[in-house]
Amino acid sequence: QVQLVESGGGLVQAGGSLRVSCAASGRTFSGYAMAWFRQAPGKEREFVAAITGSGSGTYYTDSVKGRFTISRDNAKNTVYLQMNSVKPEDTAVYYCAATRKYSANFVYSRNIDYGDWGQGTQVTVSS
Question: Which of 32, 96, 35 is nearest to 60 (CA)?
Answer without folding.
Answer: 35
